[in-house]
């Protein structure tokens, strides 16, 4: 079986407003509502809505033989609910076809898997619930933020009940091996791995409109001819990309929608490939080998590592100071603080601080709303400073409330003890009175009995006296 697995990532961050030093402690609202709404509406109209309509038409046209999969971050879903609910409706239509699979990921599109296992599992659980509520699917395949993966992360993912996971087919991991097979986790072999074919994926996602590229212009027929050049024993071509590729990263004028519309027909007419969801690939193919990934990888940049988010001291400082607050955040039990903590974890904030201006500089600048990474760092740390003030205050209040609550409990117990002691004293006093009454009654009874006995004895003596007198007379 030779198959194509199409997977699309859908994500939009909550962007921070220009939060100045003098706002710290005075203004606790961090978000640029205008930018968030306007950008989301723009991307929805240029990308999500037309792409979803086209996908739905192709599924119906090819009678279910065309299959696709998505993961949608919880942050994106929240913004759809706020600013573009029709996008969620269009995804629901796709879900209803039965030929679209929704994957799980971290709710906040965060890097929690690198820092805190408990937080990681909490976010994944929250995301699964949202997917179930909106689309009626309980995800069985996991896609971590930015395809971040390691052997240890994979073992945790299996522990959470997933059967398969997506990650990058990085050269430094695979070596001479091909990404076009099904692999498994090195620690927990029961977790199956689908590896991205980054060359063919990036031909569409990044190089499609590049006129200096030797593959330009890319047509569906040309792309399928490249698929046919893949050795016949290689079983799956995993094409993973951002959904914004269609209409946003590659504008409609480039012909990207025409390419997408023609792609399934070109596959069916000119190749022996089928289309499969990630779950179907994991079920139908046999694992060929374990993928050994002791150090985390991702799908970003040439290095396929974590340097896009944690490659400099600014990123590391911001990242570490954020997660130091986690225990206090959950201790204070404040919904607004918990929501802000989720939004602070969005990986995009750390991506904006990247200082990689070499081979990947253009990509980083395209996604970055700040003029420099230093501005991104300063803005984030200002927000984080105010957030910490709120957390500390809430924790102190929570502790004061706990002390007050415990004091009240102790006071209530003291009052109960005092009440019980008084009752006990009363009962003891009643007992003593009762004993005294019993003794008095007993003494009275004894005296009465003694008097009666004395009286009886006297009566007997009186009865004998006449006989004695009579006897005297006779003698």
What does this structure look like?
The chain has helices spanning 33-61, 74-83, 85-96, 117-135, 151-159, 171-174, 198-205, 220-228, 256-270, 278-284, 307-310, 313-324, 326-332, 335-344, 348-351, 361-367, 373-474, and strands spanning 3-10, 68-72, 100-102, 141-143, 164-168, 182-185, 192-196, 236-242, 274-275, 287-291. With 475 residues, it is of the alpha/beta class. The protein folds into two domains: 3-299, 7-stranded beta/alpha barrel; 312-435, no CATH class. The strands form two sheets. Strands 1, 2, 3, 8 and 9 form a five-stranded parallel sheet that branches. It has a five-stranded mixed sheet with strand order 4-5-7-6-10. Helix 2 crosses helix 3, helix 12 (313-324) packs parallel to helix 17 and helix 14 (335-344) runs antiparallel to helix 17 (373-474). The protein is elongated. The N and C termini lie far apart (152 Å).
